[in-house]
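Notes, Module 5: Reading structure tokens.

Key idea: the token line is not a picture. It is a compressed description, and you learn to read it the same way you learned to read a sequence, by spotting repeated patterns. We will look at two proteins. The first is printed below with its tokens.
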Amino acid sequence: MGPKLGLIKIVAVVIVVSLVFSGSLVIIGPGQRGVVINFGAVSDQVWDEGLHFKIPIYQRVEKMDVRVQKEQTDAEAASKDLQDTRSTIAVNFNIIPDKAGWVFQHIGRGYNERVIDPVTQEVVKAVTARYTAVELITNREKIRAEIKETLKTRLLDYHIAVVDVSIVNFKFSAQFAQAIENKQTAEQMALKASRDLDRIKIEAQQKIAAAQAEAESLRLQRQNITADLVELRRIEAMQQAIQKWNGVLPQVTGGAMPFIDAKSYTGK
């Protein structure tokens, strides 16, 4: 019984040592930080990625994700001219790695709901109130940049770094949206009417120019017509008639013989 009892003791010691040793190993994965807690109190120690040893029973380690995360927040606000707006803001952020212990101690793991969402809503309301509804539409990139910079400053107090901000969705009330649509329709109709008026004016100017040219041509023709020109044209017409005559008098059954005035060909 003696040797068997000794073997059992050895195995028991090995098991205990193995359990203690394995419980002392902590692996901090990629994109994580280890917050060291000593007897329930958060210490200033923050472990980086890799393998670490902790004191059993005395220490435990909470792993915090410090990679870039995304949080989408719905925010309602009013513009400077009191138009209601509804927007969805996407915030890309990360916990500052060496401040993971502070975040765990003062905020915990629910920092999205406890900090990021309410701060984002507050910032969106403050920025939106400085612009009219039309300015919010035409200066969307400027609004986004202003929200981003303000969020950076506000969330830095909680040791959260803002990487980027996007306006995923941006809507006004149904009444204002309809008013914008009606305005765009009116502007398009006004533009079409203006173009039609310009076309009509151009066509009228073209007709006036053509009529003026024709009148000028007739005026010049009237100036060039003289008594001599009329007589010359009459003689030319008579000559053409003689050239076409074959010398045969018309055959008539009755009536007088045609009389040709020879003087008319000479003008005497």
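Here is the second protein, with the sequence above and the tokens below, as before.
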Amino acid sequence: MKLRAFIISILMLWFVACQPRKETTPPAADSTSTTVSKDTVAPGFLSEQQKAEGWVALFDGKTTTGWHFFKNKENNSWEISDGTLHCKPFIENGTNHRSDLTTDGQYENFELIFDWKISVQGNSGVMFRVSEEFDEPYASGPEYQIIDDEGYPGDLKDVQLTGANYDMHVASAKAAKPVGEWNESRLVVNGNHVEHWLNGTKVVEYELGSADWNKRRKVSKWKDFPGYGLTKKGSIDLQDHSHEVWFKNIAIKPL
């Protein structure tokens, strides 16, 4: 019996030894690892394709690098909040030093993209080809209007609603989202040709200096501003209208 048990044990050991070795799979990487490939996350909001196309961010979400207050005026109305440029509301019975925020860079022909949201009863705008030769940004720079269309106090003309070329050209469609929601805008300026886009819809198109433009100017508030719309190269300007407004994802592509 002992001999028989010994023979069976030898056969079992031989059988196990002859089985093919099973390869083990290395454990998966720890999902909480802090090591991330530089290629997996692109800094900022611009895609690699946009960067390749020539887009350049004008706001890094952290600092006002590349911006200054118009004519270097004293200011306490702008702050960086949660990755946005935030224009604070007017402080009743407080100290208010207000001014527009203007790019250091000068631009002639370009596409500009920016996201924005407005406060209840708020009013603001984005101007282009602004010159600090004048006392106010709007004395030279045409304005892409931003406003609470429904809640702004007082009567608004069509040329004062969101997306309009302020006091000159009416937005062809009401494409703005409700107050408090983010909107995506695009401004195209190429020579004398200008386009306003709002949430994917082209709402304004005009030619600076054309017969139609001059006719509209003569019956607008800009008839009293001799330098309006004549600057060929200037700054991008975010308007401080003493109301709360937020901007983010601001980028420009020279044309």
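Summary for the second protein:
- The chain is about 10% helix and 30% strand.
- Residues 184 and 199 are 5 Å apart (CA to CA).
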